[in-house]
Amino acid sequence: MKQYYEFKPYNVARWVIWSLFALLLALAPLVFNSGLSITMLSQMGIAIIACLSYNILLGQGGMLSFGHAVYTGLGSFLAIHALNAAGQGSLPIPVSLVPLVGGLAGMGFAVLLGYVTTRKSGTTFAMITLGIGELVFAMSLMIPEFFGGEGGINANRVIGKPFMGISFGPPIQVYYLIAVYTFIAVAAMYAFTRTPLGRILNAVRDNPERVEFIGYNTQKVRYLAFIIAGFFAGISGALGALNFEIVTAEVVGAARSGGYLLFTFLGGATFFFGPIIGAILMVLAFILFSEFTSAWLLYLGMIFLFMVMYAPGGIASLIMMNLRVAAFGRLRQLWPCYLPLAVTAMVALTGGAAMIEMIYHLQLNSAQGSTLKFMGMVLDTRSLNSWFGAVFVLLTGLGLFEVARRQFAREWGEIQEYIEKEIKRREAL
């Protein structure tokens, strides 16, 4: 028996990353201090919690859910009811703890619905979540006493006397409340990935038969993960209720669930930081991108298809693959290939976007005339030259992109062969 204790050294990199994350949350509103920026930052924090909670199901457990908005939405409704009750004096709870009410509500509904949902996996699980999502959305329109009907439920987050000057009236105060919950929730969900339950959940995702063979109940593992995901989803929904002070039936709709799925996948469901990237992109798309064009949903769909075809691991996988190449000192070799890929992709995107914008102009804005401005150019929907030019640019870009892609594939293959040989050489030492 050892007569002394052994201590593992601190993971300095991990401490640095988490410190930088906390610092970023604290300083972001000081750099981006406009009203719109504060609103976007608040929504990013809310979306980060929602996407990470969804990734507990999809990325860590392999459970494709089409009804995650049920738990964020019901958390929103319970939180706003609690906020109204606190304002009337019937519920002695401070505003800062209202998100926990939403978390407990999301967990409670996950306990109630998750047992049935997680009895099956794969396609059956996905269909059950879709059915439950549609059921809850229909109920939201049928029970106006709880859901508020089409107008939703309003609330006022400024209740009672300010504590140390904090009333949660100014958006900046709400942001910092969201930032605190975001940091704690992200840290807690990361810690969950390091627990035995989190590890066995990964095993259930990869090989459920082997997990059953070693004595674990896969349904119980999925059920517990579902409950945990519901808790954090409820916190996200409650923070959204505090931020907007209104909750409507839209928060439990299929579109909201689809948004979580889409952007979690785009960010990278197989990496912990992938949903964080996806959440940021979701807010940027919904607030900024939608202001530039009416066809933003079509563009999102095209980006999704492109990522499925060329980068199914999401943006996070692209980052990690290039970091791996950089670790072996071969990233410089790829830069001459990345530049043609980017240029030709932009050319193809310009041509395709011009066609899309002209089609949308004909369908939605034809009463304003036949011309429209696009990237500093004037396009005429009635002119054959505009259509021919757009098609020519699109086809030229696609052709050149394919040539650049094949060259990149050859270079990438050679680099991966070198890395594999280098790994074997180092292992042999």
Structural descriptors:
429 residues; mainly alpha; ABC transporter involved in vitamin B12 uptake, BtuC; 2 domains; two-stranded antiparallel ribbon; two-stranded antiparallel sheet; 16 helices
List the helices and strands and how they pair.
Layout: H1 12-31, H2 35-60, H3 69-88, H4 98-117, H5 122-142, H6 144-147, E1 153-154, H7 171-193, H8 196-206, H9 208-213, H10 218-244, E2 246-247, H11 254-267, H12 274-292, H13 296-310, H14 314-327, H15 335-364, E3 371-374, E4 377-380, H16 384-428
Antiparallel strand pairs: 1-2, 3-4
Helix pairs in contact: 1-7, 2-7, 2-10, 2-11, 2-12, 3-4, 3-10, 4-10, 7-10, 8-10, 11-12, 15-16
How would you portray this structure in words?
With 429 residues, the chain is mainly alpha-helical. It has two domains: 12-297, Orthogonal Bundle (ABC transporter involved in vitamin B12 uptake, BtuC), CATH 1.10.3470; 328-428. It contains 16 helices and four strands. It has helices spanning 12-31, 35-60, 69-88, 98-117, 122-142, 144-147, 171-193, 196-206, 208-213, 218-244, 254-267, 274-292, 296-310, 314-327, 335-364, 384-428; strands at residues 153-154, 246-247, 371-374, 377-380. Strands 1-2 form a two-stranded antiparallel ribbon. Strands 3-4 form a two-stranded antiparallel sheet. Helix 2 crosses helix 12 (274-292) and helix 15 packs antiparallel against helix 16. It is globular.
Describe this structure in a few short sentences.
The protein is mainly α and 429 residues long. The chain has helices spanning 12-31, 35-60, 69-88, 98-117, 122-142, 144-147, 171-193, 196-206, 208-213, 218-244, 254-267, 274-292, 296-310, 314-327, 335-364, 384-428; strands at 153-154, 246-247, 371-374, 377-380. Helices cover 73% and strands 3% of the residues.
